Amino acid sequence: MKLLQTLFGSITNRVFLLLAAGILVAIFVTAALAIREDRQTMQSMRNEHEAERVAQFVRLMESVPDSVRPQIAQSGPQVGLRASLVPPQPLASIEDSDLITLLRARLPKGVSVRQAGAASDCVHHGESMTGGGLFPRAPGPVPGGGDRGGCHLLDLTLSDGTPLHLALGWSFAPPPPPGFGGPRFNFPWHWLVFFGLIAILAYLGARMAVQPLRRLTNLTEELGRNIDRPPLPEKGPGEIRDAIAAVNGLQAQIRKHIEQRMFMLSAIAHDLQTPLTRMRLRLEKVSDDILRRQLLGDLAAMQQMVREGLDFARSMNSVEHFQSVDIDSLLETVCTDATDTGQDVSYEGHTGVAVRASVSSIRRCLGNLVENAVKYGEQARVQAVVIGRQVEIRIADNGPGIPVQHLESVFDPFFRVENSRSRETGGVGLGLAIARNIAQKHGGQLRLENGSTGAIAILTLPVEKSPSRFGLNA
């Protein structure tokens, strides 16, 4: 089952196998037709040759007296036939109408053909002529094994009524040399070479036919990682161009929908700031201290929600300036800034690589992850390593971790894990959503997993080049 899935699991293999099978069938059909045509041609040539031999022999018999005819008949083996002036018993042979037609056209006037056919129970002229020579033998295999083939048996009547029986072997050539073996099987190596060359061409053709589809698949996957990438170039066969045009149209619709959603969110968040500011100024005039503190706390939560909503909208913005960024310098800066504010943050590792990024966006992403680790796990331990063509940044905390069923849900906007992350700690559930949006816009990924002491945020970004090749740091 796995072998069938491997063979037929890709369009390339399917096209190749279909072409190879079609070519193989065509080879066998063509070979069979060629062999049949060759046999028919050889049969026609044999009939022509035998009819001419018989006609010459009969003309000779017609031109000599009756007394000389027995001697002429005895000399028949010299021209590849045996003749007898005594009619034999009737033979069971397959009538050859083509040979009869040729004989009637070539035989002298007055000579009639009583019987002409092909039989398989007579021997070649290459055998010993003793005991009847080419005259009929008993049915069965030839002594020593093998089958010597068939021959033509002819019953004629000369113009004076004399019967004449002739037997002619298939072979036109002289008898084979002594010790010559029977027919041997020769493997058709030329067929194998021909099929191998055609199979290579079929495989290359299959790859060329599927290459545009594979390219479209790769471009579509890249589009899934970055919806803001330029439209796909409409190149290739007509069907592929139509598919690319449909994908580009879908991309444009998705981008328009996202832009409308982000514009609405940004407008709402921005327009809320003015009334919230006026509310704060008026709350300062409340005489009841307890009530004033409570109202100001609720108002601060609302203002934070508005700010994070604006940040979330900005994280979806496609208009950003990307440049080469030294990832080590950036991580050291983020961790130093957090340490200066009294947070327990440390950084280990030296990657020596750079990424192509928007400095402000990637700092916001890393800042959100470090802030989350400190907020819910009391500390943040940052490590960076290079794996292949990617740099992996791990930010571990010392908190209670995240339930397995919520490891993906926490990236949804406004989602909060109950109990472990209450509103008393601050935030409205947009920090991780913003961080993942930024990571994906940079061609990277962000995921969470539980470690031995708490949760670990793992950020992967594609590596651009060594920082020694540029002078710009974060």
Q: What would a concise description of this structure say?
A:
By secondary structure, the chain is an alpha+beta fold. It has helices at 2-8, 11-63, 69-74, 97-106, 189-225, 238-283, 289-315, 327-340, 359-377, 431-441, and strands at residues 81-84, 94-95, 112-119, 151-157, 163-169, 323-326, 345-348, 354-357, 380-387, 390-396, 445-450, 455-462.
Task: Give an overview of the whole structure.
This protein has a five-stranded antiparallel beta sheet with strand order 1-5-4-3-2. The chain contains ten helices and twelve strands. Strand 11 and strand 12 form a beta hairpin. By secondary structure, it is α+β, with helices and mostly antiparallel strands. The model is unreliable at 123-150, 170-176, 419-423 and 466-474 (pLDDT under 50). Helix 6 runs antiparallel to helix 7. Among the domains are: 12-135 and 149-169, 2-Layer Sandwich (Beta-Lactamase); 320-469, Histidine kinase-like ATPase, C-terminal domain (Heat Shock Protein 90). It is 49% helix and 15% strand. Residues 207-259 form the HAMP domain. Residues 267-465 form the Histidine kinase domain. InterPro entries: 2C_sensor_his_kinase (IPR050980), HAMP_dom (IPR003660), HATPase_C_sf (IPR036890), HATPase_dom (IPR003594), His_kinase_dom (IPR005467), HisK_dim/P_dom (IPR003661), HisK_dim/P_sf (IPR036097), Sig_transdc_His_kin-like_C (IPR004358). GO terms for molecular function: ATP binding; phosphorelay sensor kinase activity. Keywords: ATP-binding, Cell inner membrane, Cell membrane, Kinase, Membrane, Nucleotide-binding, Phosphoprotein, Transferase, Transmembrane, Transmembrane helix, Two-component regulatory system.
